[in-house]
Amino acid sequence: MAKYFDVHPDNPQQRTISNVADMIRSGALIAYPTDSCFALGCRLGNRDGLGRIRSIRNLDERHHFTLVCQNFAQLGQFVHVDKDVFRVIKAATPGSYTFILPATKEVPRQLLHPKKKTVGVRIPDHATTQALLADLGEPLLSSTLLLPDEDEPMTQGWEIKERLDHVVDAVVDSGDCGTEPTTVIDLSGGEAEIVRRGAGDTARFE
C-alpha cells in the first residue's frame, strides 16, 4: 500500500518532505504535485521506477521523460544549453514548461529518445516540489500522471491513492494542482518548436 503524505501547499512541513526524499533515495516511486498537474517521479537511475512508470502509463521507447530540476544550475548538468537557449529558458522558468534538449552524458541512456538523444527538463514553480527537490539534491525522473485511455490527469491526492495504491509507494498531496500538463517546447534543433500546448503561455515561442 502506498503511504499518503498531506503537505501544506505554501509551507511544506520539512519533516514530511525529508521522509518522502528518503523514500525516493531508497528506490520509491511517488505521485506528487507540480505547478501543472500531478506527476509520477523516482530517482534518476532507478531502473525499476522507470519501468513502473512505463507500465502505469503504457509508454513506448519514444516517450520523452522529464528531469524535474530545482534550478537552472542543476538543469545545466543534464542538457546542453547554448547562450540563445539559455536566455529563452531563463525567461520562462520557473514555470509550467518542459524543454526538450540534447542530453549530456549524465543522463542514463534508457531515458533518451532513441534517435535524437534528447530528454525533457523543467523547473517547476511549486512550493512542495521545490522543497522536495531541495532536500533530494538531484532531479526527479518524472512523467505526467496521465493513465492510458484517459483524457485528463487525476487532480485529487485521495483518488490517486485509491487507484494506484498497489503500483506506487507514496502519494504526496498538496491539494488540487489542475489538469493541464506543461507546455512542451523542443529546442534541440536550434529553433523553438511547440510540441504540446499546455499550462505555459506559448506566445513567447511563436
Summarize this structure as a short list of keywords or feature phrases:
single chain, 206 residues, alpha/beta, DHBP synthase, 26% helix, SUA5_domain, DHBP_synth_RibB-like_a/b_dom
Write the layout of secondary structure elements.
Blueprint: E1 3-6, H1 14-25, E2 30-32, E3 39-43, H2 47-57, E4 66-68, H3 72-75, H4 83-92, E5 97-102, E6 118-122, H5 127-136, E7 140-144, H6 157-163, E8 170-173, E9 183-186, E10 193-196
Parallel strand pairs: 1-8, 2-8, 4-6, 5-9
Antiparallel strand pairs: 2-3, 3-7, 4-7, 5-6, 9-10
Helix pairs in contact: 1-5
What is the CATH architecture descriptor?
Alpha-Beta Complex
User: How many E strands?
Assistant: 10
Secondary-structure element string: EHEEHEHHEEHEHEEE
Secondary-structure class: alpha/beta
Whole-angstrom Rg: 16 Å
Sheet bearing the most strands, described?
A: 10 strands, mixed
User: What is the count of structural domains?
Assistant: 1
CATH topology: DHBP synthase
Distance between the termini: 45 Å
**Low-confidence blocks of residues:** none
Mean pLDDT: 93
Q: Helix coverage percent of residues?
A: 25-40%
CATH class division:
Alpha Beta
Roughly what fraction of the amino acids lie in strands?
A: 15-25%
Strand order of the largest sheet: 1-8-2-3-7-4-6-5-9-10
Shape: globular
H/I helix tally = 6
Q: Could you name the CATH homologous superfamily?
A: DHBP synthase
How does this model look, in words?
- GO terms for molecular function: double-stranded RNA binding.
- InterPro entries: DHBP_synth_RibB-like_a/b_dom (IPR017945), Sua5-like_dom (IPR006070), SUA5_domain (IPR052532).
- The model has no long low-confidence stretch (mean pLDDT 93).
- Strand 2 and strand 3 form a beta hairpin.
- The chain has 206 residues and is an alpha/beta fold.
- It starts with a strand and ends in a 10-residue tail after the last strand.
- The protein has a ten-stranded mixed beta sheet, with helices on both faces.
- The chain contains six helices and ten strands, in the order E-H-E-E-H-E-H-H-E-E-H-E-H-E-E-E.
- The longest helix is centred in the N-terminal third of the chain and has 12 residues.
- Helix 1 packs across helix 5.
- The protein has a single domain, classed as DHBP synthase (Alpha-Beta Complex).
- The radius of gyration is 16 Å and the shape is globular.
